[in-house]
Amino acid sequence: MTTAIVGIAFVASLELFAACTKQNRAGAQTTVAMMLAQHTQEAMWNLPFTDPNPLSAVFGAETGEALATFDDVDDFNGRSFSPPIDALRQAIPELSQYTQTVAVAPVNLNQPSATGAAGAAVRVTVTISYKPVDTSPVERVYQYSWLRMNQ
Fold first, then answer.
1. What single-letter DSSP state applies at residue 138?
2. If DSSP states are collapsed to H, E and C, what string results for 74-115?
3. Residues of the chain whose pLDDT is less than 70?
4. For residues 67 and 89, what is the distance between their CA atoms, to the nearest angstrom?
C-alpha cells in the first residue's frame, strides 16, 4: 500500500514538473516577444507620419527603399523580419527563431476599430511568431497594436 502511495505521488510530482517547465518556456517566449514588439515601436518612434517627399503617394515602402532607409511609418507595412530587429533596426541573429511581422493600416478617427482613409491616423500591429526548428509549426506568441496620429 505504501509503495502505491509513494508511486502515485512520484508520478504526480513528475507531471507537476513537466507542467511548470512548459509554463516557464511559454513565459520566456512571451517576454522575448513583448521586447521584440517594443523594439519595433521604438524603431518607428522618430519617423515622420507621412513620407518626407511630398510627391510620394505610395502607402508602404517606396521602390528601392530598404529597412535602413525607411523614412516614414508606413514603410514598415507588410514587412517581416527574421531574424527580428532591435530599436536601431539591426538584426538580432540570436533570436532567429522569432519573426516580427508589421501591419500599418489607416484608421477612421471617428471609429478607431475600423480602417479609414489615409491621412489622420494609422494602426500599427506587430505580430511575433516563434518557430524553434525548421520542422516545427509556426506559433503566434504575441500581438501588439497602437495608434499613431498625424501630428
1. P
2. HHHCCCEECCCECCCCCECHHHCCEEEEEEEEEEECCEEEEE
3. 54-56, 111-119, 151
4. 7
What local confidence, expressed as pLDDT, does residue 117 receive? 62
Query: Cα separations (Å) of 2 from 6, 7, 10?
Result: 6, 8, 12
Polymer length of the chain: 151
Residues β-bridged to residue 149: 121
Contact between 148 and 121 (Cβ < 8 Å): yes
* Residue with cell string 519617423: 47
Cis peptide leading into 83, omega within 30 of 0?
yes
The per-residue pLDDT for 54 is 67
What's the CA gap between 37 and 81, in Å, rounded?
11
Q: Quick check: 141 and 29 in contact, CB under 8 A?
A: yes
